[in-house]
Design a protein that fits this description.
The chain has about 70 residues and is mainly α. The protein has three helices and no strands.
Length: about 70
């Protein structure tokens, strides 16, 4: 597994999200890379999607205040 390649595609995916790409578009790209079995690219993109989704969820929860409680299992 090439961790540098995964990190590179993680950063590319974050850049794409910052510049208007949607999570659904990135999921479509993952599917294309799965078809050619390039799983390092998939891992980088997936990591970016998960990170952005988590951050979005926590920001949303904070905005709603006490209406939503996030609990994380150890």
């Amino acid at each position: 597994m090439d961790k540098e390649r995964i990190e590179e595609h993680f950063k590319i995916a974050l850049y794409e999200l910052e510049n208007g790409s949607t999570i659904d578009e990135l999921r479509e790209i993952i599917t294309e890379y799965e078809d050619v079995e390039d799983y390092e690219v998939c891992a980088g993109i997936y990591r970016a999607i998960e990170m952005v989704s988590f951050i979005t969820l926590t920001v949303f929860a904070k905005q709603l205040g006490s209406k939503i409680r996030l609990r994380f299992k150890k």
